[in-house]
Amino acid sequence: MQLSNKIRQDGAPILFFGLLIATKTYYLIGYLTSNVDFWGLLGNIGHIGDYGRGAAFFLTGSLSSILYYATALAFDILVFFSFVGRVEARERPEGFWENIFPLITVFLPVIGFTLLFIPEVRQLVPGFSKTTVEAMRKVSPIFPFYMNMMGTLMGLAGAASSIWALSYLRRSFGLRTAIRKLVKSGPYRWTRHPLYAGEIVHILGLAILSATPAGIYLFIVAVALQVVRAKIEERKFLRTIPEYAAYRESTGFLWPRLHKTG
């Protein structure tokens, strides 16, 4: 692909993910360099029991968050280089549903959850009702810690799964609905949309970490958008690549088939 065409077609997403990577890297470095308590506990991990029960919770949560953040950053880096090196499309996107709608499915949850995690915005978002909070405390006094760990682990698992899927798409990846080639290796041997499945799990982790009803509602909307996006892609593949029909019959939609149809 010529440089002028590359800039015209992929300049905006390359710039966006480049800025996103720079911003996340800046905040990750800032967190690591300013978190004195974390480094102090990590350096004395053999005697962490001397600091009380809360120290172990704090260290575990910090390590999980750092690992999750680093994995999410790795995903953004892989997306960036996929855009830089991807090949010309065999079939270009057409109309609103193939050009604009896929971008909505990507940026709506990205922007929504980014806002939910900004302290100034978070203060304005209604939390769970007092009844719900009391019910959580009855389950366990440290229920928020368990939910935080669950959200972090789910986010980490989803991001790692997305990285695995994206590593097989590579130069065939795109935000809009375009056809380059049919990938049937790696996780695509068993399911047609493993990247979206990973993103759904990732977003569910973010919804749990947000600890707000708004996060749950945003997750539901994001899942619905991803499913519609996948269906639009499948219709285009069926029109463009004859072998896709047989591939669709032998694979699952978002997760592997439990049994063969026939």
Descriptive tags:
single chain; 262 residues; mainly alpha; Four Helix Bundle (Hemerythrin (Met), subunit A); 2 domains; 11 helices; globular
Shape: globular
Please state roughly what percent of the residues sit in beta strands, choosing from under 5%, 5-15%, 15-25%, 25-35%, 35-45% or over 45%.
Answer: under 5%
Q: State the CATH topology of the largest domain.
A: Four Helix Bundle (Hemerythrin (Met), subunit A)
What characterizes the major β-sheet? none
**How confident overall, as mean pLDDT?**
85
Compute the number of helices: 11
- Quick one: how many beta strands? 0
How many domains comprise the coordinates?
2
CATH class type of the largest domain: Mainly Alpha
Proper CATH architecture of the largest domain: Up-down Bundle
Helix content estimate = over 70%
Uncertain segments of ≥5 residues (pLDDT<50)?
Answer: none
Distance between termini?
42 Å
Rg measurement, Å: 21 Å
The helix-strand sequence is HHHHHHHHHHH
Given helix and strand content, the structural type is mainly alpha
Question: Concise description?
Answer:
With 262 residues, the protein is mainly α. It has eleven helices and no strands.
